[in-house]
Design brief:
heterodimer; A: 348 residues; mainly alpha; elongated; disordered C terminus; B: 579 residues; 3-stranded antiparallel sheet; 15 helices; disordered N terminus
Chain lengths: 348, 579
């Protein structure tokens, strides 16, 4: 970063500006060279593409409506027509067991869930919901946290104290407990979220997205506010102030560009966290609501079949594992790329 | 009552069931009841000689969760009732025997079943002498006065005894039933005066709410401390997070083996906190003796239980219960008769049965009264084909036609159900059935602990159209279904205790209900005929989509013997012995 004297020299034309390498281009180059991070990115993108292709798979390959129970349906296994739900044997004939994996993409590849729905099609549709909520809530959370951190760090004093204490209050609640409380309240008593003219229906994916975004704001707010505080008194900010820049310009032109790398580093890690949170909340019944599915709801549905039809549970679990793993590794790579000194410190 | 009963709610109804297959054992048991239930106070019984050789050991039950507050004046769960019947007694009792004979009312702490006087409004009970509570106090008629007053001073379901003179002025602040329940401790008599004849009083007195507790018991909720009782066992401890422990009552002696036989195990322990799948595994491996019978066994393990090696350890019995959807008759579309009938025609009952575990665990039905219940006559107008006694398949064409005629096509419908596996799957199937005939249906899933109260309360009636629910008999009387669930008198606006969830009220049916109740004492055959007619008229009016009548599974360890299943109390824990 240029010192005040150097900046004055450049501005006044006493000294020509030296065009250094673009830091973003440098970061991108470092990330590109990180093979593990790039492999993770490819894996993540592959999962995204697979999930986006869910309607194609359901309609054109498996020929099923994954949202309709199919308890009385039939399918073809090895050329034979068999019922999707198979009655228990023995004398008592207890229970109805869904068909297991056929490993035939066009006929219940991963088998059926407890209501006879195609587990593979559900898995892909569930991935769409999980990724959408994960990415959406992480982005919303980072946006909100960054704005609040910029305001708190820039204005300081009472504003900073008030906002920081508010964040402390939210932080004081265990995240899952807070999310369950909010989710239960919104689902049970208000049948969704209502704020003025804004209404979010209980079955909308926006509801878990907003809840998860809200509970994680303090977790992003803290490091970003710290970064803002470290930047707000730097010479270039003082110079901009001396030149008559207003608060908005100072915040968005001088401070934000210097803290955005922190947010970018946090983003993939937050996506991984929010995907896990969504899965947990949906597993507990306060996340994604029917008819939508997510990896969490599929795992919940599969818990009763874990001995006889384990793939109903294993498949979404595996998808969560791969997604979160890829995002965490990618997040580390992004951090190393944007802050090479951190890597040097670690390596040193 | 709800499927998962640990939450004590005012309107929650006790799960009680009945077997309608009369086995040889049941016939023998019935003879025992006839012999022992005629007011004899003999201290010996035909079963006692056999009992002596089987006594001893600790019988361990595994349950997923405790049953909330243990005070018998409040608790309304099968889980505690199955234990309370071994520790307490009422004036009357359901015969503790196997099979349909278990529906019979026998005298328990009373020496005989009294004949009512004063136009059916006064009952004089003669109380047995020489019976002691587990704390050593002698049972006196005046103990019952406090027992009944506690029905009103302890917040809980009080409607069963609201017909006692003076009850209308009782509240949680205080209760004086000196005119309604008159005790004479010297003559050992107890007189119960009612404001109006109640043909079901003897059944209601056999429920645990009316089990005798000492007069010294606090009029307020005793929480997890169960007051002393007179049964063969006494409560040593109850912690809803860990376990209940029942040990032998040293003061107990058999006075009427049909009402209260001596138990076999020395100790009964019910442990809480395991996953149901772990409970099953542990019991099959001999680590415990019983999986609590209302814990839903995962469908996974049902297939395990089909193995011939467990044939002697698994028992399936038909419950006197309904799984149903109440249709909200307060608002469109189901304030329209044709719309209600349409979804009844469209309901895929085969799918509902499969969700519950298949034909071995549920039987599809269209009507309110379950098979085997008094006044039951098979009736199902909502099926394809011409037969009107048994459901075979949905009739979608008829359903779609009715929707068009009703003018409700395309309306939004909210299906309210529970978040558990079965509740959720049933809701999704109902949504599918509704959508198939032209509605735009969605689900609203609530935790089991709140859903039942939520749909009962009329202040929430604008938030749902179809509500999932279940009902298990309290005692074998048609009114327990037809009046309690679909009578005008059980609609309580803005209350969580309004069991007529559909808010269905038709004056012509209500008049018949009143007539049937009046006829129950004077002309029982006519009353039975009327109840059958009411059942069919309710079914025609379609305030519900009746799905199926469930069955219950008991899983026992290999060393458990003497299995008996009572239609009211289900498994008779104290009558099992260990090898």
């Amino acid at each position: 970063m240029a010192t005040l004297l150097e900046q004055v020299e450049v501005d006044t034309g006493l000294r020509p500006a030296i065009a250094g390498p673009n830091p973003w281009a440098l970061a991108a180059r470092r990330l590109w060279r990180n093979r593990i991070a790039m492999a993770s990115l490819v894996l993540f993108l592959l999962i995204v593409v697979l999930c986006l292709a869910a309607p194609l798979y359901a309609h054109d390959v498996a020929h099923v409506d994954p949202f309709l129970p199919n308890l009385n349906g039939h399918t073809v296994v090895n050329g034979k027509v068999v019922p999707v739900m198979q009655r228990g044997g023995g004398v008592l004939k207890l229970g109805e067991t869904p068909i297991g994996p056929t490993w035939d993409p066009s006929h219940y590849f991963l088998g059926a869930d407890s209501t006879g729905r195609d587990a593979a099609a559900l898995l892909l549709y569930g991935g769409r919901s999980s990724l959408l909520i994960g990415i959406g809530s992480a982005v919303l959370c980072c946006l909100a946290a960054t704005v609040i951190a910029l305001i708190a760090g820039f204005f300081g004093g009472v504003t900073d104290s008030l906002l920081s204490r508010l964040m402390d209050v939210i932080w004081a609640f265990p995240v899952f407990l807070l999310a369950i409380c909010i989710g239960t309240e919104l689902l049970t008593h208000t049948n969704g979220f209502q704020f003025g003219p804004l209404h979010v229906d209980a079955s909308s994916l926006w509801l878990p997205t907003l809840i998860i975004a809200f509970i994680y704001i303090p977790y992003v707010y803290r490091p970003v506010r710290g970064q803002v505080l470290s930047v707000v008194n730097k010479e270039f900010v003082e110079a901009s102030t001396a030149q008559g820049a207003g608060n908005l310009r100072l915040i968005f032109s001088e401070i934000l560009p210097n803290v955005v790398s922190t947010v970018i580093v946090l983003l993939p890690l937050m996506i991984a966290t929010t995907i896990l949170t969504e899965a947990a909340l949906s597993f507990l019944g306060v996340g994604v609501q029917p008819p939508n599915v997510s990896w969490g709801t599929i795992i919940q549905d599969g818990t009763d079949l874990v001995y006889t039809r384990p793939w109903v549970t294993i498949a979404p679990g595996l998808m969560i594992l791969l997604t979160v793993l890829s995002l965490n590794v990618l997040g580390d790579g992004v951090r190393d790329a944007l802050d090479p000194r951190a890597k040097l410190r670690v390596e040193g | 009552m709800k499927r998962i009963p640990p939450m004590p709610t005012i309107a929650a109804r006790h799960r009680a069931r009945r077997v309608y297959t009369l086995s040889t054992g049941a016939v023998v048991a019935a003879l025992v009841v006839v012999a022992a239930g005629c007011g004899s106070s003999s201290s010996s019984s035909p079963g006692q000689a056999a009992q002596a050789g089987h006594k001893g050991g600790t019988f361990t039950i595994l349950a997923n969760a405790g049953f909330g507050q243990a005070d018998p004046a409040q608790n309304y769960t099968a889980e505690e009732w199955q234990l309370l019947i071994d520790t307490h007694d009422g004036l009357t009792g359901f015969a503790k025997v196997n099979g349909t004979a278990g529906n019979k009312i026998v005298p328990d702490l009373a020496t005989s079943i009294p004949v009512p006087t004063n136009g059916g409004k006064t009952y004089v009970f003669h109380i047995r002498r020489g019976i002691k509570f587990s704390n050593g106090q002698t049972l006196k008629p005046s103990d019952f006065v406090k027992t009944f007053e506690r029905q009103f001073t302890v917040p809980g379901p009080t409607s069963f005894y609201s017909g006692i003179v003076g009850a209308s002025k009782c509240s949680t602040k205080g209760c004086n039933l000196s005119k309604g329940v008159v005790a004479n401790d010297s003559a050992y008599t107890l007189t119960i005066n009612l404001t109006a004849p109640d043909p079901e009083l003897m059944d209601q007195l056999a429920l645990p709410f009316a089990f005798a507790v000492p007069a010294s018991t606090s009029p307020k909720l005793t929480g997890n401390n169960v007051p002393p009782g007179t049964g063969p066992y006494m409560w040593q401890s109850y912690n809803p997070n860990t376990e209940s422990v029942l040990v032998r009552n040293p003061y107990f002696h058999v006075w009427n083996a049909a009402a209260q036989p001596a138990g076999y195990p020395d100790k009964i322990v019910e442990k809480y906190g395991l996953q149901v799948s772990d409970e099953v595994t542990q019991v099959l491996n001999g680590g415990a003796n019983e999986v609590y019978d209302n814990d839903p066994i995962p469908s996974d393990q049902l297939s395990t239980l089909n193995s011939p090696q467990y044939a002697g350890q698994v028992h399936v019995n038909t419950l006197l219960a309904d799984y149903y959807y109440a249709l909200n008759t307060r608002r469109p579309p189901f304030n329209n008769l044709q719309a209600r009938q349409a979804i009844n025609y469209a309901a895929n009952r085969t799918a509902y049965v499969k969700i519950f575990g298949g034909p071995s665990l549920a039987v599809p039905t269209c009507q309110v009264l379950p098979p085997g219940f008094p006044s039951y006559s098979p009736y199902c107008p909502y099926t394809s084909g011409t037969g009107h006694t048994k459901w075979t398949a949905p009739d979608l064409a008829k359903a779609k036609q009715l929707v068009q005629q009703s003018g409700t096509a395309g309306m939004k419908v909210v299906v309210d159900a529970t978040t558990d596996q079965v509740g959720k799957a049933l809701a999704e199937q109902m949504v599918s059935d509704l959508n198939s005939i032209g509605y735009k249906a969605s689900t609203q899933l609530l935790s089991s602990s709140v859903q039942y109260n939520f749909v009962q309360n009329s202040s929430n009636s604008g938030k749902w159209n179809v509500a999932y629910s279940q009902w298990f008999q309290d005692y074998p009387a048609a009114s327990d279904f037809l009046n309690v669930l679909l009578g005008c008198g059980t609609i309580h606006p803005n209350s969580d205790a309004s069991p007529n969830i559909a808010a269905f009220c038709q004056q012509n049916i209500e008049s018949q209900i009143n007539q049937a109740e009046a006829d129950a004492t004077t002309n029982p055959p006519e009353a039975a005929r009327l109840w059958t007619q009411i059942d069919q008229e309710d079914t025609n009016a379609a305030p519900w989509v009746d799905m199926f009548n469930p069955k219950q599974i008991d899983v026992l360890s290999k060393n458990v013997h003497g299995y008996k299943w009572n239609p009211v109390w289900n498994i008779m824990i104290d009558q099992l012995w260990l090898s």
